[in-house]
Amino acid sequence: MRYVGNIFRPFSEANSYLLQCTIGCSHNQCTFCGMYKDRKFRIRTLEELRGDIKMAKEYYGDLEKVFLCDGDAISIDTPVLLEILHDLYQTFPSLRHVGTYVGPQSTLKKNRGELTSLCAAGLTKAYLGVESGDDAVLKSVKKGVTAEEMLKAGQHLVTAGINLSAMVLLGIAGTGPDADKHAIATAEITNRMKPHYLAALTYTPVPGTLLFKKYESGELTLPDPFETLHEMKLMFENITMDNLKFIGAHASNYLPISGMLQKDKASMLNRVNRVLETRDMNSLQAESSRGL
Hints:
Oligomer: single chain
Mean pLDDT: 95
Number of strands: 10
Low-confidence stretches: none
Distance between the termini: 24 Å
């Protein structure tokens, strides 16, 4: 397979064939993210991608899952994306899933008809980096959209029929009242967006990023493990939508926890509350085991 730079994908796409449709991320301004800072964004040609699909066919034979990377394949013109999806489903008879990261700005540039056509063509899942429902946090990390714009992007994907995984960051607001505001606002945007999945990760400073420099200088104080769990608790308490799969098993989290809201809400809250009450460090993921 032909790849440029390091390749990133959600942990749930571990068994997917990775088709690098773009090099880098079209936005690439987020102060917490170091994934694509070493490369200039460009969209690969359809000819290149067809060559990669041919190589994947020769190597794998057949596939069930494909992930379109790098950071924002939804930024590709819709007719070209439809061609890519058509080629994938024609090439791999067993293909049942095609996922991709989606940026909020790129998503908003597509009308609902375009998103619906992509879903009909087999784009089954979108991973949207919501990070927070709080305008102040989104502005401070240079996400490039307001909370209302982020909400609109997510709602358009859901309305189009695409399974939406909203990704949020615990600890990104620092400590104190701002952290509580971030957690509650994130629960509120979730209730309104109605994603199919909510994946919570814990912010981890990445050397070389702007937010890492704020952390190093003391301008940003990170919450301790129990303060991070308090944010998770606030999210659980304020999420009211039903049939939401909460995924908190990412390696960055101090307490891996997953379940279905609202069905498992009581047991999930009980587990978090027990750790908060005892403040037992042995109940938490060891620092040496945590990662991005």
